[in-house]
Structures are given as structure tokens and as C-alpha cells.
Design brief:
seven-stranded mixed beta sheet; 193 residues; alpha/beta
Length: 193
């Protein structure tokens, strides 16, 4: 039987699927064309909630249309602001946060996530994570800003308190063209004394 190691997006989905359940709360920090937002809405079910962010109005419109066609618009709140503002709009702890960095698929590549705002966003996500909740970050180092994001995020994750967080990086070591990498963070449960 042949084995396929898959991709960063696949690895992220595996982590998120283990964390979510009917009634869960999730954040799509980079809604893009809405595929991940819809998928998260399916995972959290009728009693769950998804908060989704994107600075591009085109992304918000595509996502809203996709959710409406699937009859899931009630499960999500869409925000046309940068993900670094999630603490301004999400006022409850969440079970999972999903980042898919880079640019809007099918759009101009001139608009991409930025290192400074991404770092503020992942810090905000840590605040919102429940104990034992997860955050996945798919990073695309194949362009200049993506390389900066990767370097900064690895430094950030490596500096997290190991008593509070687990940080894992999964990536190919021998593939050309700098394929995406997946960084996963799990907030540990505080042990009662």
C-alpha cells in the first residue's frame, strides 16, 4: 500500500478535527474564499459558533455566499477586519483557531498576510484558547513575506512557556519550492495543586 504524507493543510485539518465537536467555538483567522469557514461550521454543528476574519471584502463576500448556499450562515460571524483584531470581537473562549497565511486564492498576490499583524493575531488567539484547545498555522515560505512570517513564527513558538503550551512544526525536509509548513500550538491544562 502506498503512503502519502499529504500537506500542511491536511495536517492542520487533522489537528482541528480532533479538537472540535458539536457546540464548539472556533476561529477562522484567514477566511479566504470560505472553504475553511464552511468546514468549521460543519464541525461545530448547529449549536456551535465560528468567527471568521479577513481584511479583503471579496473574501467576506465569497464566504457569506458559500455559507448561505450551504444553509450555515447562522453558525458564523464574519468580520471584514484583520485577524489581529479578534480580541475586539470574540468575547468567549474557543476550542480551535485556524490560520492559513499567504494570499487570497485566485486574487492578486500583492495582498498577503503581514508578519507584524500575524504576530499580534497569534498572541490574541492564545488569549482566546481554552485549556487543551489548539491553534494551527499554515505558513507559506515560498515568497518574501512568507519567509519572514515563518522565521518570526518559529521564534515566537519556540519562546512559548513549555509549562503552558506545546508547539509542533511539521514540514518536508527535501522538497523543492519551499512547500507550506504547519505549526500547531496546544494550550495545556493547568494542573491543580
Amino acid at each position: 500500500m502506498a503512503t502519502d504524507f499529504k500537506s500542511a493543510r491536511f495536517w492542520a485539518k487533522e489537528v482541528i478535527e480532533e479538537a472540535l465537536f458539536p457546540g464548539a467555538r472556533a476561529i477562522d483567522a484567514t477566511m479566504g474564499n470560505g472553504y475553511d469557514t464552511l468546514w468549521l461550521c460543519e464541525l461545530v454543528g448547529e449549536t456551535g459558533k465560528v468567527y471568521a476574519f479577513d481584511i479583503q471584502q471579496e473574501a467576506v463576500a465569497h464566504t457569506a455566499e458559500r455559507l448561505e448556499q450551504a444553509g450555515m450562515q447562522e453558525r458564523a460571524s464574519l468580520f471584514g477586519v484583520g485577524h489581529e483584531h479578534m480580541l475586539d470581537t470574540v468575547h468567549e473562549p474557543v476550542d480551535a483557531v485556524l490560520f492559513n497565511l499567504g494570499w487570497l486564492p485566485g486574487a492578486e498576490h500583492g495582498v498577503t498576510t503581514q508578519t507584524a499583524t500575524t504576530l499580534r493575531a497569534v498572541d490574541a488567539a492564545l488569549v482566546l484558547l481554552k485549556e487543551e484547545a489548539v491553534m494551527t498555522i499554515c505558513i507559506y515560505p515560498g515568497h518574501a513575506e512568507g519567509s519572514r512570517e515563518l522565521e518570526s513564527l518559529l521564534k515566537w513558538a519556540g519562546g512559548l512557556d513549555d509549562k503552558r503550551y506545546d508547539a509542533v512544526l511539521k514540514h518536508y525536509l527535501n522538497q523543492p519550492n519551499d512547500p507550506p509548513q504547519m505549526l500547531a500550538i496546544r494550550k495545556k491544562k493547568i494542573k491543580k495543586k
